[in-house]
Amino acid sequence: MAAFVSCGGTPETVAGSWTLDTESFVDAAIPVMVDAGRIPAGAERLAEAELTKVRMQIDLRTDGTFVCDMGIGATARYEGTWLQNGQNISLVQTLENGESKDDQMSGKCSGDFLRLVHDEQGMSMPYVLRRNAAASPR
Questions:
Q1: Whether 26 contacts 51, CB under 8 Å
Q2: So what's the pLDDT on residue 80?
Q3: What is the pLDDT, as a whole number, of residue 108?
């Protein structure tokens, strides 16, 4: 997964812990899924109930590595490296549960919110995360 994040204002490190903001995620994801034909007309409430089960936690470590745990029920672990250049950040995923993986994401940071977009089977799925804490030096 490669992600590019642009933070407004003075460049600050995005290192730290980020957790999926479920309400913002659901609000952003439903229209994308409807437009992509993944949710039949009238089934938005059912989709909302399923999407509220999604869990995602990203830890951007100060040593330039990251760990992302994501899933519904059982979670998958994604690992890789990240680099911040001014207001931009790039994440390059190298592993998924110990296996090599090539995947891409892009996004934007605004204050304590990080919005990543992941291309999933022909649709651009948005993930909205909220900062839990700044990273502590390791």
A1: yes
A2: 86
A3: 74
- Here the CATH number for the domain that contains residue 125 is 2.40.128
Q: Tokens 């977009």 label which residue?
A: 117
Rounded to whole angstroms, the Cα distance separating 18 from 56 reads 8
Helices 22-35/44-51 angle, 10° precision: 140
SS (H, E, C) 30-85: HHHHHHCCCCCCCCHHHHHHHHCCEEEEEEECCCCEEEEEEEECEEEEEEEEEEEE
Q: What's the domain count of the chain?
A: 1
Whole-structure pTM value: 0.81
Q: What pLDDT was estimated at residue 136?
A: 57
End-to-end CA distance of the chain: 24
